Amino acid sequence: MKRGNGLQRTTPLMAKKPMARGKGLKAGAATPTRKAPAKKAPRNTGPTPAVRQAVRDRDLDTCIVCGVVVSGRPASIHHRRNRGMGGSSDPRINDVTNLLVVCGDGTSGCHGMLTDRPWELDAEKHGWIIGRNSIADPALVPVLVAWLGWAYPLADGTWQVIEDIAAVTS
């Protein structure tokens, strides 16, 4: 392999006067430091406290998937249509109709199953997950609620129970 002379300078270096002797930094002198820029607080992309409370009230503080009461236990609000890593510009993402109470967190309990292994629970079939690329409105996708059966989540923070799911899904 033949090596060349490397990149050649196209403009000459500017000739400046050398620093006078004894005028440079002294040994042990503190070097000037730049102040670190203030860190921005992380952007909150989750639901508002009022929406979170409306979801907890609608779901009776009970896991939608397994039916266990989550008061005083690890639980979280699950997005049926995921937010994605940077949040989402979709205004429905933090809507009451897109949120469910589930036991556990993103790695344990039903929430862990929904996020890590949704196929084991048939999560999409039961309405607990809506595909990220789906155009379906979360309010129009029925959910299998552990203590109610099939129901639509309504924007007013209630459930509309579906009497005949076969008529809806066929």
Secondary structure layout plus pairing:
Blueprint: H1 49-58, E1 75-79, E2 99-103, H2 109-116, E3 143-145, E4 149-153, E5 159-161, H3 165-169
Antiparallel strand pairs: 1-2, 3-4, 4-5
How would you sum up this structure, described in words?
The protein is α+β, with helices and mostly antiparallel strands. It has one domain (49-169). The chain contains three helices and five strands; from the N terminus they run αββαβββα. The strands form two sheets. A three-stranded antiparallel beta sheet has the order 3-4-5, with no helix packed on it. Strand 4 (149-153) and strand 5 form a beta hairpin. The N and C termini lie far apart (70 Å). The mean pLDDT is 84.
Instruction: Summarize the helix and strand pattern as letters.
Output: HEEHEEEH
Largest sheet: 3 strands, antiparallel
Number of domains: 1
Mean pLDDT, nearest integer?
A: 84
Fraction of residues in helices? 10-25%
| Adjacency order of strands in the biggest sheet | 3-4-5
**Strand tally:** 5
Taking all Cα atoms into account, the compactness measure Rg is 29 Å
Structural class comes to alpha+beta
Distance separating the two termini = 70 Å
Percent of sequence in beta strands: 5-15%
Q: What's the shape? A: elongated
Keywords:
single chain; 170 residues; alpha+beta; three-stranded antiparallel β-sheet; two-stranded antiparallel ribbon; 3 helices; 5 strands; 14% helix; HNH endonuclease
Brief synopsis:
With 170 residues, this protein is an alpha+beta fold. It has 3 helices and 5 strands. It has helices spanning 49-58, 109-116, 165-169; strands at residues 75-79, 99-103, 143-145, 149-153, 159-161.
